[in-house]
Amino acid sequence: xxxxxxxxxxxxxxxxxxxxxxxxxxxxxxxxxxxxxxxxxxxxxxxxxxxxxxxxxxxxxxxxxxxxxxxxxxxxxxxxxxxxxxxxxxxxxxxxxxxxxxxxxxxxxxxxxxxxxxxxxxxxxxxxxxxxxxxxxxxxxxxxxxxxxxxxxxxxxxxxxxxxxxxxxxxxxxxxxxxxxxxxxxxxxxxxxxxxxxxxxxxxxxxxxxxxxxxxxxxxxxxxxxxxxxxxxxxxxxxxxxxxxxxxxxxxxxxxxxxxxxxxxxxxxx
Length: 270
What we know:
This protein is α/β, with parallel strands linked by helices. The chain has one domain (4-268): Rossmann fold, CATH 3.40.50.720. 48% of the residues lie in helices and 13% in strands. The chain has nine helices and seven strands. The protein has helices spanning 18-28, 43-53, 70-83, 110-140, 163-183, 209-212, 219-230, 241-249, 253-268, and strands at residues 9-13, 35-40, 59-63, 89-92, 145-150, 188-194, 236-238. The chain has a seven-stranded parallel sheet, with helices on both faces. Strand 1, helix 1 and strand 2 form a beta-alpha-beta unit. Keywords: Oxidoreductase.
C-alpha cells in the first residue's frame, strides 16, 4: 500500500494548533518534500505558520471554518481543488470537546453538542464527500490518493465525562473502516490515526488542562510515533496506550469488515 512518502500535496484541516499543526510541520519536513496546505479558521495563526516555516514556498495556507452551511463548505472545497489541482491527500484534524453529566440532564447544552458533532463528524463526512470526486479521478489515473482521519482511543473505550465526543470519534472510526474497504479499488487510501490523550488546547474550555497535563502524552512524542507509522502501509495507526486497547478490542475487525463487504456483494449479485 502506498504511504505518506508518496504524497505530493496535502491539505490538513484544523492545523493551526495541536496535533494538526505538529503533523503538518513534520510532513513538511519529509524527504519527499510535499506541498503542505495548512487550514483553519484563525488567520493570524495561519499567517504565523507560513511566515515561520514557509520560506521555500511549499507551505501554503487556506482559511476555512468547518462550522458553516453545506453550500458554503462545498464552495470552499471546490475553490481549494481549483487552486491546488495536484492535491492528492487530505487530513482531518479539526476538533472540539465538551464535557457532560447526563445525571444532571438540565445542564446539557444541546446546541453545544450539535456543534461538537458537526465539527468532529458531520463536517468531516461532508468534506470527504466533496473531495472524493477529485481524489477518485486522480486515483483512477494511476496516482495514489489519501484520506487521513483522526479519531481517538475514546472511539474504542468511551469516556463517560465526554460522552458526545466519544460517540463522534466512534463514528469517525466506523466511517474510516467502511471507506477503507469501499475506496481501495479506486486507489484512494484511507488511514485512521487513533491518538491517546495528547497535549493539546482541546481541553482549555473545560478547565481540565492542568489536571490532564500530568498524564497526557507530550505532543512531540505523539508526533514522532505517528510519523514513524505513517511511513508504513498501516491503515489504522494506534498510538501509546491506545495500541493496547486496539489489540484487545479491534484486532481483526478491518479484515472482518472486508470479508463482510465481499459477502454482501456476492449476495447482491446472486
